[in-house]
Each structure stands twice: as structure tokens, then as C-alpha cells.
## 1
Amino acid sequence: MTRIAFFIFLIVSANTAFAQTGDTTYLKEVRVYGIPVTSYATGSKVELLQSGSEVMTASDKLINETSFYFKTYGNNQLSTIALRGTTASQTAVLWNGININSPTLGQTDFSLIPLFLFDEVSIRYGSASALYGSDAIGGSILIGQREPLFQKHFDGTFYQLAGSFGKFATGIKATYGNDRWEFRTKFFRSVIENDFTFYSPAVGYSKTQNHAAVENYGIDQQIHYKISERQRISAEGMYTYNFREIQPAVTNDNANETLLDRHIRLSLNYQIDSQIGILSVTAGYVVSDQDYTDDVVSNVESKQLTALVAVDKSLNPKNNLRYGLGYSHYNASSENFTSKISEDRYDAFVSFRHALRQFWLINANLRQSFYAGRYAPFAPSLGTEFNPFHQGNSKITVRAQVARGYRVPTLNDRYWVPGGNPDVLPEDAFHVETGINWSRKVDTWSYSLDGTIYKTWISDMIVWTPEGNVWSPTNLHKVQSYGAELNAKSTFTSGQYKLRTDFVYSFTRSLNKTEEDPLFNNKQLAYVPLHSGRLFVSLAIDNWSIETRLNLTGIRFSTLDNVEGQSLDPYGLLDTSISKRFLLWKTNFDLRAEAFNLFDVYYENLKNHSMPGRHYAVSILLNFNNKHTL
Amino acid sequence: MKTFRGLVLIVLATSCFVLTSCDDEDNPPAGEFENGVFVVNEGNFQDADGSISFINPDDGSVKQDLFGSVNNGLALGDVVQSMTIDGDHAYVVVNNSNKIEVVNANTFVSEHTIQGLSLPRYFATLNGKGYVTEWVSFTDPGRVTTINLEDHTAGESITTDYGAENILAHDGLLYVSNSFSNTVSVVDPEEKEVIKTIEVGSSPGTLLLDSDDMIWVICGGGYDVEYNPLNDGKLVRLNPEKSEDESAVSVVKAIELGTNVTAKAATNKAMDSLFYYSGNSVYSINTSANDASSSPLLTEGDATGFYGIGLDPQDGLLYLADTKNFAGNGVVYRYTTSGKPVDNKVAGRGPNGFVFK
């Protein structure tokens, strides 16, 4: 079967991801084209989302496929993550190993990450600054491309969607490869008028959104060249454009604010399998250019140049070592900076992995960062994973980790005029978690159960408070976040029938522990649902497939005092789709009809910002693959 | 004491009942909010969770979100800037929703919505007409717009200066402070023109009348290009006295405050003292003084930073609003005019001002 764009949602522990095909968790030889950093995430929970070929935002994808909470300002509007009850700035987002959280704002708007341009999204739960650097407190999201095949082949993909509220999305991908080269080109464009009608109880009558249109397009070009069997070079260049009218609060009319975002992302990577190990050198350049227009245009621009050098050495079958250095130079301009800000950051990191036994791995990571001439908190982490039981297709994996996470204050925190505080300290987190995974395959039935509990202590949380008439950031808050995650999935195959179910439940208790403020002490953080869950069922019969997804989100408070009247109602969203695949002219066709929010529930993810009711989309995906015949 | 008061109530109630001389037609209870203190809570920008709270003068209890609780959960809107009571109507100005909600001042039942405004701020009435200040935008000069109180429509506008903010109707004229500028505009509403523009100081805000019929305006103070405060906050006293030349309004005196302050102030009942604040410290000054004291009347250690001030003309208590950083509902602190703490109450989110009725 070709790479068909289905939602494939894998929950795997780090080492099973790397040993999926093997029978043992014993150290695998790290291949030159592997993702080296993965193998040092022993003990942490990892999920891999295949992005497939849909033209959609990373925000929509993650909302569909996980139980994470996103604070979305409307349909296809600004969307920030709250992973395990942390703030939007406490999730590291890495592209080809480069942190792409905005250096000025410190967070990522996931509606600006077009999934069509990326092949893979990997979610690393929990604090892990030793591996991913700043911002890795609640977790880390790694986005990137799959490895080149270096085989003679040609792939073509065409995707077209038409949906409610004037939505049209087009995506085109082409890959050509031979034993030395691989070229990939991707282009997408997506527009939505977003003129949905909603009935908000706060307004009391039906209104039609008239200021929420979005235009989004982007292009990605990759060139991979195999210099020799042991050397490779990869270049990638990406440009994305996103223009949107900012959807106003439900009570507001005559909105006129717009946001224009342009991103350029360039990277060059060279890898060589040499005597000292696998040496990987990456240079990256990321430009983020944003125009916020109210009556006047406010521009914020940041440029980031990053160089990473890492060596991954398999010392012997039991021991792996990885070490390296990172350097980033930031430039940022904004009318709220007195002049152009420029800053250098340095990272030194080392990781060590050891197999105590055939069934028992331990892993230690260390990182020290320096920013603007200061030390970031020294970040160690320790993880372990073992298989108390492993027989045939049945396996139990127990994992545990202890880690420190930190977040370097943003450029805004330190240089914003007025109020920026150059002396504000990094946020600091200590994290423990443990989990268990049981997977089993019996004839035509495979299933797995995964449970995790965790606790994170966050101190020196940065909060802007007024001092006199000027707001300024201070390390005011402390937060304790703990929770449990449960995932059960199963696949049952019988002849032409395939039934898949996937259930996720998250319990997230994230408490403000700032005694100085008795009104808010011991209260749940804003926009963190205590309960959230997701149930996915798909039934495939021959070439037909019916998928149903139920997302449940509990009550959320919009303020820190958790009072009645400052909360958002719980909601359940039911989406369903039917699709048919067939092969014609060497091309896979996938026709799909989808309905979202079938119950037509009025819901909000941010106070008084409406989300759309029931809506529909139809799409066609053409996948031309000529791997074997060209 | 309590029982005595109870007894009086019973006697009164019984006498009403027995004698039936209490004329219900003459003295009907106009509504739950006939007397008391309204707290204007602007809410969090873009969350549209602005509200009005009510402090009951009898027992000090607070009722939250009057508009929502009386009107079936409706929201007032985004950034509830101010409220003005005129007769039986209360005019609630909702800045970022570009509207004024007109409600019954005694029951808070929604009556009308005045639409089509551009970042409205404050409202005043004069000779049966309403006037609302509007910022218009951050690049255009602000204005005063006439509101027809019969059909609740916005009419003609008179352009003043950048950031048209507070408005005071006095002796047939309208005084408008222009907060993005350093001026007060004197508007003749009949002629529909600005008859004088007076330079007062950076970021003028609240306009107040004192016992000598002089007008005070508080100026918050300016910032240099690096946003460092210039510490040039001021209280400016204007003489509105009309002479032959109508535009003879003049500056009587300007008191340097030596610091930047929030451009909000209140007077006491006698209207011979002014109260203003910076951060979580409150200052007072007599209207006859020529210099401001650098030592505060009070400093509230528990407050994150004051955001609004008011003085109850009935019991003479000083009200200060603390937003608690907008992280949740704010708190109202009450003091005597000598700065002695009385108590505090939780209001709504982002309390910024008070209306006493």
C-alpha cells in the first residue's frame, strides 16, 4: 500500500518507536538517517502523528488527534497550546532541531503551522530541557520531514477540499528521487471566508461572523543529496504567508484588526558517519515578520540564525553517547523596543544511554545554556525504561523520568518598552513522571493500553504586573501541575473489515501556588480543563471507511479565581467522515465527505470567541506513486 | 438596637397595611438598585466580560454582573468603560464594543443599545441631550457625539483632540479632556463647535467641579521616547466663568504632582478636597493648596495597583478599585477620607470606577 493519507495515530514509547520491527528493546544501531535525538528520550512518553496530505493547520490536527487544550481565538484564528496544564510559552516547538517559538512572544501560534508542508509531528510529553532546551516544560512538539529514501521514484500528490463558510484548500506535492538525489516540492493554499452564523447566549440573537476571513499559502522545497554511503546533505527552504481578519469577541461589531504573518525557514544539514560517530551539522535561519493592523500597522520582526553540531556515537552495543553545541543569534525589531535587539545564545549538551540488561535501558541527559551573557538553569534529566514482560507479541513497558525544564524570558519580557525587565529570571520546572504500556497482538486483534501519571513543580513563573502605571514582568507565580493520562487503542481485522478504536482521557490539575495572592492561591489555572478526552472509531470495509471522532472538553475557567460566571461550558464535538479509495491510472484516489460538530454545539475555547456550529467539507486526494515502475 | 430597628420596621409595615395611607402610586419601590454603589468592571480586553457590580448600602453585600443576571445572561460587552446615570436611565459605555447600553437605572433591565460609535469613553447629559466622547481611533482626533435620548441614535459629532476622554457638562458648556494629547476642549453644544482649547498637561483625564465652581482636571503625565515617565503629572484648576468673550476659560493654577499618576480623581462631598492615586498609594489635596504633598494619604499593601477611584457623597467613604492584575475578579477597598481602612469587597473583573446613587 502506498503512503495513504489516513490519520494514523501511534502511541509508542520512545524505544518501541525505534524497535517497532524488532523483538527486543536492546540498543539498536542508530542509523545515519535516523532522528538521533529520539533515542535519548528514554522514559518519556512520545507520540508520533503522521501528517499525511491534508491541508490543515497544526492546531486543527492536534485538536483532532490529541486531548490537548488549545486556546483558539476563533475558527482558523490564533491558537496556542496548553500542554499538561502549562502555558503556551511552556511548550518547546522545534523544527529540524531549531526552537521556532517566537523569540519576542515566546510561543507558537499553531494556526500558522501548515501541516501540509510537514511530514511528521512528534509530541514529547513532560519537561525535557536537557534534550530540547528552553521552553520544554509542559512538553515539546517536534515538526519535520521524513527521511529521504534515495531510491528511484516519483510521487505526486494533489489535494483539493471545499467546505462550509467559503473554505477552499489546495495542496500539491511532488517528490523525485534516485539513488543520490531527492527533490521534494510542496505547495498549498487555503482560504476561508469564515462567515459562520452563531448564537451566543451572551449576545442573545444570531449573528454572522463578518470579520474572520483567512488566506494562507506556503511553499516548501527540499533537496537531499547522498554524497556517499556515509555522508548526506539536506537543504530545506520554506515560506509561509498567512493573512487574517481577527475574529472579534461575540459582543463586538465593526472589527477592523488584521494580522499578517510571513515566515521564512531555511535549513542546511550535513551528516557524516565517521570514526568519531555520526556527526550532524545544522545551520538554520528563521525569519518571522508580523504586521498587526488596527488603525495603524505595528510590525514585529525577528530573525534567528542557529548552528547546531552534534555527535552521536555508538560506543558499543550497550552504550550510546551524544554530545554537541548550539549557537543562536537573534535579531528583533518592534516599535516597543528602543532599538533593534540582538542576542546570542549558546548551548552545550550531552546525552548518554546505557543498556543495563537486555530489557532495561537508562538514559541521562545534560544541558547548559547561556543567553545574553547569563546562565540558564542547568538542566539534567534521567530516564529509564524496562520490560518486565515480553513474550511474542505481548509486551509490557514501564517507563519513568525525572527532569528539569526551564524557559528563558522572552525578548519582550526583557526589552519591552515600557516595563521590560532585563533581570527577570528564567522560569524553572522540576518534573517527574512514570508510565506503563501494555501492548498485545492476538491473531487479528491488537491492542494497547498506556497509562501515565506526572507531576511538575514550576517556579519563577513570569507574570506581568503593574508597578505604578507601567506593567513589568516579575517571577511571581508558582504552579503545581499533576495529572494522569490514559490511552487505550485497539485494531481488529477480519477479512475486508478493519475496526479501529482509540480512546484518550486526560486529567489535568494545574494549581496556582502563589501564597502572596490569597484570592488566586490553590486555584486551577485559566483555560486548563480538568477533564478532557477523545474517542475515535473507524470502520473500514474494503475500500470504504467511516470515521467518527468525539472530543470532550470539561469546564474551563477564564480567570484565576475560578468563580462562577468566569467559566466556559464543557462541550462535546462529534465529527464524522466517510471516504472511499480506489486505484485508477496508477493513482490512488481518496474521496472524502466530512461533517464537523454534528450536534451543532455552540462552544468557545476562549471567553466570548465563538467557534462554528455544524459544518461540512468534501475533499479529494490523488496520490500518484511510481516507485517501482519508473 | 437591632431589635429596635426591627420593631420600627414592623410598626411602619403594619401602619402601611392598616392605614393604607402609604400611597403605592407615589412611592413604589423603583427597583433593586434604587440606592447603592455601582462598580464599573471593564473586564479583560477582548474577553467581553465587562460587568457592573452593585454594593448594597444596607448590608454591604455585593451583587455581581447586574446586566447579565437581570437580562438572561447577556453580556455587556468588551471593555465597559463607564456608566452615567441620568434620571431613570443608566448609560453604560462599552469601549471596544463601540456601543452604549441603556438600562433602567433602578432595575438594570436592558432598554436600548446605541450603536455605531467609535471607541466611546464617557457620557454626559446636558439640556435633555446626551454627549459621548469617542477616541475614534489611535490615529484620528477624538470627538464628542450627540446622542438623541428619545430615539437612542447617535447624531452630529464635534471633533476635539486626540483621545477624547472625560466629559463634564457645566453651565451650558461641555468640557472634554483629550487623553492622548495635553488639552481640554471647551465645547459649545448649541453652536456645535469647540470654542476653546486649553493646554493643561500630558494625558488629561477626570474632570471635576469644586465648591468654588472651578473645574479641575488631572493630568497623568508624559513619557519620553524610551517610555520613561517624565513625572510631570498635574492637577490643573480652570476658571469656567463666562465673560463677554465666551471663550475666556482660563487656567487658574497648575499643581505639579512630581510623579506620573493615573489620570483619575475624585472630590469629597464638600468638594474642597481632591483624591488621586499612583500605583497603590492614594494622595489628597485641598483645593486651596498650591503644592501637592509627596506623602500619600494611604498605601494599600494588598493592592496590585489601583485602577479607579470614587467617593460616596452619602457616607463620605473613599472607594478604590484594584484589578488584581486582571487575573480574576478585582477588589474594592474602602477607606475614610482620612485614609483609615474600612473594608474591602470583591467586585467584577477589572474594576475601573464607581457610580454612587
## 2
Amino acid sequence: MSVYSCAQLREVAPELALGVLSGAERAEAIIHVNGCARCQALVNELTEVADALPLLAPEHEPPPGFESRVLAAGRARRRRTTRRWVASIAAAAAAAAILSITIVRVVESNDSASTVAMREPVEVRMVTTPGAYPAGWAYVTNGTSVAVAVDYHFPSGRYRVVVVPHGGTSATIDTMTVADGRGSATGRSPVPLPGGSTIELVAAEGNTVCHGTVAPES
Amino acid sequence: MWSVSDDALVAGLAAGDQDAASAFVRRFQRRVYGLARTIVGDDRAAEDVAQEAFLRAWRHAAAYDPRRGSVVSWLLTITRNLSIDAVRVRRPASFDPAVLVETDHESTERGPHKLAELNDDTARLRAALARLPEDQSRAIVLAGLLGYTAREVSEIEDIPLGTAKTRIRTALQRLRAALVSEERAE
């Protein structure tokens, strides 16, 4: 994959801001924008205008009863979501507990005298387009354990979860199936992920559809 | 609830406040349904999309970040994306951008201050769109509002891909320049 120059990026910046750039082009543009503050500022400026365009659509009165139907559906969905999240949280807690025990045992087997302190996970914002609302979040624990979840208007499909350590070589650590806009995956990076490393969701066609950058440690 | 700010309504939505949810839907339903109807071109499908847009907003209200744009822009972006997903197999584009330039609607559910602010933004954008050459305004409406890619725009308009890209790019840059110059003039 070639990476755009600033001049090439300026050519496609409006389409990137409008969200109508094709997958491969978008992936290249995002890679460039992530490393170029000036082009990122340009895309952000254009995105402001692009986001305002839907204001031009004519208003129209919805059919009678629309409001009450939305509210009823919202209440029903909240009940279902609560039940689902209780189950998810229980599963995640169990997975985290197993992961912690495994890490402790591995370290203990190498050095029985060492004490292991689980570090706070590093939160990574996953975005599809620079400046966009997060499509989801990734969490990096102890530098190598990665958990990713997307749940904001994400296209259904199967994606590779790829980690790119800062200055290192990329590695696929898991696959994620997204259905009904949601999906999650966990995996372990072969090497630690310092600040500047990226976590990417890569579609079957090879284009990166969502990515996040690990913030430098403060 | 009539005078409560948009941001406060979203905060209430995130907290699960039913009154806030009700006021939120009442305040924005004409805009959300209108946008969905513009893109999907079918009343029944538009209602489904509009309902889903409100449910998504409800679910993600806690993630709303006012630094990234207004509530109405956030909500309409959700609506636009859902509408485009709903019409993956597109009808031929027969949409006339002039309709957008000429329409001037007012919401009756909005506080006077916000109403003026919103209509001001919309009016400025509409005026800037009206000043564009027709081929550029069509291109930006097709891509920016209806979600057609440059290749689809080139097919609809029967023009080379490069020309479609140039029209989209020039139109967005001109809209941006027009809005910035007006902001500075104020």
C-alpha cells in the first residue's frame, strides 16, 4: 500500500470529509492524515462543512404516533441492552480474571519471588475517519493484552484485529465479527505496544476501516 | 422542556430521563424524518430510519461530545448514515438540489434563540450553495447529502470520474470559504 503525499491528500480530502471515499483510498488517506497535523486540520475543517450539509434537507412532519413509537421502542431496547450488558460484563470479568491468573502464573513460573501488579488498561479511541465520533474503544493492558469493541454504526462483516507496534512489525492478533453494528475481540500482541502504536480493524479486502493510536505514556 | 438547551436534553437522554427523551424526539423529529425521507424517498422506510436514528442517539447519548459539533449535526449525521445504508441499491438520482436552496422551514418545537441560530447556519449554507454553479451544487448534494461516491456521481451526471471529483472538491472548498468569510465578517 502506498501512502499519500500532502498534495494527493488535498485532492481527496473533501471526499474523505464527506465519507464517500472508497475503502482502499480511505485507508491510504487515513494513514497519511494520522501522521500529518496540517492535513488533519484541513480534513477537520472540511468535515465541519460536510456535517452541516444534512441541515439543508427539508423538514417534514412524521406520521401520527411517531414519538410514542420511538419512546416505546427505546424503553424496550434499553431493557434488552441492560440484560445483554449484564451478561457481557460477567463474561468480560471472567475473561479478565483468567487473563490475570495466566499472567501471574507465567511470571511466577519464571520468577517465583516476583510480585505482579496489573497496570491500569490504556484506553484507545477507535475511529473510522479522523475527527469522527469513536466507533468503539480498545484497551491495552500490561502493554500486550488487547481488547477491542465497536458499537457505533459499524458495518457488519469479519475483520482482522491488527496491532502495529510503534516502529515495529504489524501482527494479526484476532478476528472480529460485527453484526448489528456491534462486535468485540481480544488478543495478545507479540511485543509491547508503546505510545504511537496503532490498533486496526482490517476488512477482508485489506483496507483498514477503523483504527486507534495508543497515546504516549504521561 | 421547551427552553432547555439541546445539550441538556442529550444529557437527560444519557441519564435515561423519559421527559428528556420525549422532548428530544419532539424537538428533532421533523428534521430527522425530513432528512431520512429526502434520502430514502419512501415514507415507510423513512419512518423506520428516523426511529432507528433516535434509538441510536439514545443509546450513544453519553458519548456525545459538544466540542465535535452541535446536537443537531450529530443527530443528522447518524440519520444520514442510516439512510444511506437503507438504500444501498439506489434509485436513479432525480433529486433537484434547487429544492434545498429554495426551502425555508422553521421548527415549532425549538426555543427562539436556538431557532435563530440554527436557521442562521442553515440560511448561510443554503445561500452559499445557491451561489455555486449548478453542476457543482448538484455534485455536492449528491455526495454530501445523499452519500453517492464520486464514481456514482460521475455515472449519474454522465461525466468523467475526474470531473466528478473536481466538482465535489471545488464545491466543498467554496462552501467552506463562503462560511468562513461570513463568520469573519460578523
